[in-house]
């Protein structure tokens, strides 16, 4: 019962092009998992299959204990989704839209409470198209969670955000206590929000673990910088020791930077492309 | 809330938010002003069969309202709903698809009812256009409006799902709709058209929508193309369009939305 998403050997192709070739993925209840991968790696396809919007070619998929391809309304009521680029219902008032979407669910949030949580209580009677980009995205999150879902899909949620809107969004997501599957191109975002990170390459999960585990497994080089030079190395400690001997004492302006998730990720993608 | 009630509420909210939209309101008022200017300008001229142009054009505008709601307004709304993401959002909500379809049906029916009522009210106040006086006339009015709407709504839904954007929908259906409006005898009496135009126009439901409504409002068929009321033919042509649309539209919808 603690597994929310279970995927085994998922395959999908568009015509001749194989997009997914044996993808395995597990999400435990309550965790946030970031699905990373280059454009065209099949992230959106994977999410659409998990939501039951797309029919898979092969593989076993269970989401909240059911096969998404056969998911009925009762199952759909336990999911929430926030996609990129939604501009729908521009003429509706914010509160009216939240009320209407809430009425589709058996046990939704109270609209006033949700408006407060989203920081939109001052915009309840505004038309949706009058909201700023950041407010609109917070409304999208509200529409995604209004039905109190057990599982939330976030597809590249902060594309085009300014830094302040991004931070507000991150704080909102961190305050939710539900299982989240997130796709993003922003590696800092993945590192901040995700308990575990899955990297999708060539239609398979190339690596799946905590951001630290991913960095360790990929062994991206660390950057060592000092007054007279700069070097990338897999053995920063050894290099520092040799420098120490060369200078016959402390190394001037020594700086060692371990790889971030971004560097580990780029390293992995480059290796797979080679 | 049950699905039907939720769909009806959706339709009411949709129509209400369109009515409050300044741009939409402007377009609607512009249409009414055009109608008003036309009846003030040429309303006293005879249209044949003892009917003046005010009566003829009032009924014609109602017919065109039904037709354009189906083949122009509906495709643009559907294309916009897809472009903006409303269709995808509704697909992911429990009961979202039936609620959407019910909502669109309700909002389109309200659109037709409000426009028709406004034009009949203006025509009545300014040009003395009288509502049907007999029960038979009212029955004709109701079935012609209903079947006329059914003949164009599935067609409009198909156009809406095939065209990528609301702009593309407006561009694709705008000109053909205007040509049909001129050719179908709803603004200009059909007897004034050359024979080939008359034949082509009789293939489309708009001519029969207008003909059926005139049968509901006016006594004498003297101004009609064949000098007689042809309600059987009207029912057959509009019925054929409705039946073809209702068979083809679900098939096309499945093809387009399947992934």
UniProtKB/TrEMBL annotation, chain A:
Residues 5-227 form the ABC transporter domain. It is a peripheral membrane protein. Coiled coil: none annotated. One of its GO terms (cellular component) is plasma membrane. The lineage of its organism: Bacteria, Bacillati, Actinomycetota, Actinomycetes, Streptosporangiales. Keywords: Antibiotic resistance, ATP-binding, Nucleotide-binding, Transport. It comes from Planotetraspora phitsanulokensis. PROSITE patterns: ABC_TRANSPORTER_1, ABC_TRANSPORTER_2. Signal peptide: none annotated. GO terms for biological process: response to antibiotic. This is Multidrug ABC transporter ATP-binding protein. The keyword Nucleotide-binding applies. The keyword ATP-binding applies.
From TrEMBL, chain B:
This is Transport permease protein. GO terms for biological process: response to antibiotic. Residues 23-256 form the ABC transmembrane type-2 domain. GO terms for molecular function: ABC-type transporter activity. It is found in: Membrane. Pfam families: ABC2_membrane_3 (PF12698). It is a multi-pass membrane protein. The keyword Protein transport does not apply. Keywords: Antibiotic resistance, Membrane, Transmembrane, Transmembrane helix. PANTHER family: ABC-TYPE MULTIDRUG TRANSPORT SYSTEM, PERMEASE COMPONENT, NODULATION PROTEIN J. The chain crosses the membrane at residues 25-43, 55-80, 101-129, 135-161, 168-188, 231-253. GO terms for cellular component: ATP-binding cassette (ABC) transporter complex. The keyword Membrane applies. It comes from Planotetraspora phitsanulokensis. Its main location: membrane.
């Amino acid at each position: 019962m603690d597994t929310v998403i279970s995927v085994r050997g998922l395959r999908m192709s568009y015509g001749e092009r194989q997009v997914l070739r044996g993808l395995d993925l597990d999400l435990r209840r309550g965790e946030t998992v970031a699905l990373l991968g280059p454009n065209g790696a099949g992230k959106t396809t994977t999410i659409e299959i998990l939501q039951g919007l797309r029919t898979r070619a092969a593989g076993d998929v269970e989401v909240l204990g059911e096969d998404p391809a056969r998911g009925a309304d009762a199952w759909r009521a336990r999911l929430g989704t926030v996609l990129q680029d939604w501009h729908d219902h521009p003429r509706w008032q914010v509160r009216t839209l939240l009320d209407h979407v809430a009425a589709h669910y058996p046990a939704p949030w109270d609209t006033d409470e949700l408006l407060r949580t989203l920081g939109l209580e001052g915009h309840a009677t505004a038309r949706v198209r009058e909201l700023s980009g950041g407010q609109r995205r917070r409304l999208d999150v509200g529409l995604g969670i209004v039905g109190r879902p057990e599982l939330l899909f976030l597809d590249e949620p902060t594309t085009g955000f300014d830094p302040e809107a991004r931070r507000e969004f991150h704080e909102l997501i961190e305050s939710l206590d539900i299982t989240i599957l997130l796709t993003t191109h922003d590696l800092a975002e993945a590192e901040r929000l995700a308990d575990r990170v899955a990297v999708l390459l060539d239609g398979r999960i190339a690596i799946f673990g905590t951001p630290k585990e991913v960095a360790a497994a990929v062994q991206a080089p660390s950057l060592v910088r000092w007054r007279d030079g700069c070097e990338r190395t897999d053995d920063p400690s050894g290099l520092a020791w040799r420098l120490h001997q060369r200078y016959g004492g402390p190394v001037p302006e020594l700086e060692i930077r371990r790889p971030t998730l971004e560097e580990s990720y780029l390293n992995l993608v480059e290796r797979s492309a080679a | 809330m049950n699905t039907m009630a939720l769909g009806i509420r959706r339709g009411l909210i949709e129509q209400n938010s369109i009515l409050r939209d300044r741009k939409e309101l402007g377009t609607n008022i512009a249409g009414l002003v055009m109608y008003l200017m036309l009846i003030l300008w040429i309303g006293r001229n005879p249209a044949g069969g003892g009917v003046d142009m005010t009566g003829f054009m009032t009924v014609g505008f109602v017919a065109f309202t039904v037709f354009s709601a189906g083949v122009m307004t509906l495709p643009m709304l559907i294309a916009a709903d897809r472009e903006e993401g409303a269709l995808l959002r509704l697909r992911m909500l429990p009961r979202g698809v039936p609620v959407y379809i019910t909502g669109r049906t309700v909002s389109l029916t309200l659109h037709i009812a409000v426009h028709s009522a406004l034009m009949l009210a203006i025509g009545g106040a300014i040009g003395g256009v009288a509502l049907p006086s007999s029960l038979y006339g009212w029955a004709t009015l109701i079935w012609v409006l209903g079947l006329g709407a059914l003949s164009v709504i599935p067609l409009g839904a198909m156009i809406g799902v095939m065209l990528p954007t609301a702009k593309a929908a407006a561009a694709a259906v705008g000109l053909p709709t205007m040509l049909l409006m001129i050719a179908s005898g709803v603004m200009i009496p059909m007897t004034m058209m050359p024979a080939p135009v008359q034949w082509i126009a009789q293939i489309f439901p708009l001519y029969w929508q207008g003909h059926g409504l005139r049968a509901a409002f006016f006594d004498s068929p003297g101004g009609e193309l064949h000098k007689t009321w042809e309600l059987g033919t009207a029912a057959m042509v509009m019925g054929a369009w409705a039946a073809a649309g209702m068979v083809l539209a679900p098939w096309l919808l499945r093809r387009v939305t399947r992934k």
